[in-house]
């Protein structure tokens, strides 16, 4: 890199922008990959993700929130214990800070339902009281995510959400972490 030229970087930037649609396609493929993960739940993680996003959409959430709801567990393809942060970092350059936080901290909110069985504090969400994103994360966890394990629920298909994923991931709005 220390010997690269401006022209080379302009070429790299141009090619990167032209290749941006691959991001959405890769994420859709990752969501499909969740269909192989059940880990004892009543349905696979792809269907759980579809149910979560469907619930968010039917409840009037905006497109960034819906897409983040769809992707909130995609980190389970890599690391179940760290899946919220992995998913959050994937969406971070493309969504508002409150949506990033909703995904990053959703496990702290979900723990309310089961952490006591694992010897953990079920009230981790209280650490976040007063954060500007608290209500969104609470709504996500309590109204959409934790209810999205219903084998009888009719969720939208991944094809339904694909145009939203393409739009949200069409162009980053910031460099992650900045």
Largest sheet: none
Structure class: mainly alpha
Percent helix: 40-55%
Relative strand content:
under 5%
Q: Top keywords for this entry?
A:
0% strand, mainly alpha, single chain, 178 residues, Hypothetical protein af1432, 9 helices
What does this entry show, briefly?
This protein has about 180 residues and is an all-alpha fold.
List strands and helices in order, with pairings.
Layout (H helix, E strand, L loop, with lengths): L5 H13 L2 H13 L11 H14 L4 H9 L11 H9 L5 H8 L1 H5 L23 H12 L12 H11 L10
Describe the structure.
This protein has 178 residues and is mostly helical. It has a single domain (20-168), classed as Hypothetical protein af1432 (Orthogonal Bundle), CATH 1.10.3210.10. 53% of the residues lie in helices and 0% in strands. It has nine helices and no strands. The protein has helices spanning 6-18, 21-33, 45-58, 63-71, 83-91, 97-104, 106-110, 134-145, 158-168. Helix 6 crosses helix 8. The two termini are 22 Å apart.
